[in-house]
From TrEMBL:
<feature type="region of interest" description="Disordered">
    <location>
        <begin position="1"/>
        <end position="26"/>
    </location>
</feature>
<feature type="transmembrane region" description="Helical">
    <location>
        <begin position="221"/>
        <end position="240"/>
    </location>
</feature>
<keyword id="KW-0812">Transmembrane</keyword>
<keyword id="KW-0472">Membrane</keyword>
<dbReference type="Pfam" id="PF00950">
    <property type="entry name" value="ABC-3"/>
</dbReference>
<feature type="transmembrane region" description="Helical">
    <location>
        <begin position="156"/>
        <end position="178"/>
    </location>
</feature>
<keyword id="KW-1133">Transmembrane helix</keyword>
<feature type="transmembrane region" description="Helical">
    <location>
        <begin position="190"/>
        <end position="209"/>
    </location>
</feature>
<dbReference type="InterPro" id="IPR001626">
    <property type="entry name" value="ABC_TroCD"/>
</dbReference>
<feature type="transmembrane region" description="Helical">
    <location>
        <begin position="308"/>
        <end position="340"/>
    </location>
</feature>
<feature type="transmembrane region" description="Helical">
    <location>
        <begin position="62"/>
        <end position="84"/>
    </location>
</feature>
<comment type="similarity">
    <text>Belongs to the ABC-3 integral membrane protein family.</text>
</comment>
<dbReference type="GO" id="GO:0016020">
    <property type="term" value="C:membrane"/>
</dbReference>
<protein>
    <submittedName>
        <fullName>Metal ABC transporter permease</fullName>
    </submittedName>
</protein>
<feature type="transmembrane region" description="Helical">
    <location>
        <begin position="122"/>
        <end position="144"/>
    </location>
</feature>
<feature type="compositionally biased region" description="Basic and acidic residues">
    <location>
        <begin position="1"/>
        <end position="19"/>
    </location>
</feature>
<feature type="transmembrane region" description="Helical">
    <location>
        <begin position="90"/>
        <end position="110"/>
    </location>
</feature>
Amino acid sequence: MTEEHDDRGSPADSERGDGEPTVDGGATIHAAVQDDGRAARDDTAAATITNVGGSTRERLELLGVVLVGVLATGMLAFIALDWLRDAPGAVGTVTAGWFAGFLVIGEWADFYLGTNVFRHPFVWRAAATGVLVGVVGPVVGAFLVHRQMALIGETLAHTAFAGVAFGMLFIALGAGLAGGAVAAFGSSGTLLIVALVVSATSALGLQWLTERTDSYGDVPIAIVLTGSFAVGTLVISWSREFVAIAIDIEDFLFGSLAIVTATGARLVAVLSVVVVALVAYNYKQFLFITFDERAARVARLNVDRYNALLIVMTATVVVGAMQILGVILVAGLLVIPVAAASQLSRSFRETVYLSVLIGQVAVLGGLAVAIGASLPPGGSIIVIAIGVYLLAILLSDRSASISMH
């Protein structure tokens, strides 16, 4: 008989032959699964570290914002005590004692620092004004910068200068409404109130002109900027012959601690509280319009009203900050802290937080330099703000600001 050979091979041969690739393939798959598992664990660990770092950063930012809030509250308390210490009866007696406590703190500061400035009320008023404008300036500026309206602040500062000029002319009338205003608010306070009215009116006029002109967007801004400064120069030159008040225009141009009066500090305090309250109440609407104005109009949001509100708030901030920074430099406090914060932040809310912190660093550092070296406060504040901005660029890992989305 002829033997039939089985070409299929034995089971052992199958295990050694065709079965070997199965064993090697399983080992490869197992190794790949292990690698994927290690990669997933590494990604999880990296994400955990990132979250921990992010949460720590957020806590530090919130802590800084809380400290700024406490400082601003203390400055508001000082301004209130400065106002109420002359009140009759028990209110005046109690507040006068608390006001003296602030001055005692200033005397201890002078003792340790070897200075003779912090015991004087006008220094506290200037510091309180600086702290408050260091809060509201970046808060409003955050919306202006991300809407590419940074030049608005400079324009409204020039309209405020024209307001100061008209204020001098208003005081020169010396009777009727002008006399009553001077008696109630003093010469410097009356100047600021008139400057506020002129600046707010000019802000609304600028918005109207921008909406109804066919020129490029920055043309009306340039016209209002130069025109208001020209008008202010002419009015001041004309009214100097019969204005019987001693006001140095250079103080309003470059800023000065000496022009911050009690009335001016109270005006800044009231305006700061109002501006912060309005921003907090309308935050979502401002944010919507800032990043997608067309969609806001489609959603039937009253964009024109919110634009008018934003530009009027900018005018109020400019008038308040004009005392410390001066007309020429006041726009820097609206723009530079926000620009620096945008290099480091990852969201718009974080931009607002960081810009307020940077604003406080610039204001307090600038006031310290101005007092210590007898320099103008406006220039000192802006130079420090620019230094922080350059440092933020060096520390940033990107060259662009936060995403518009």
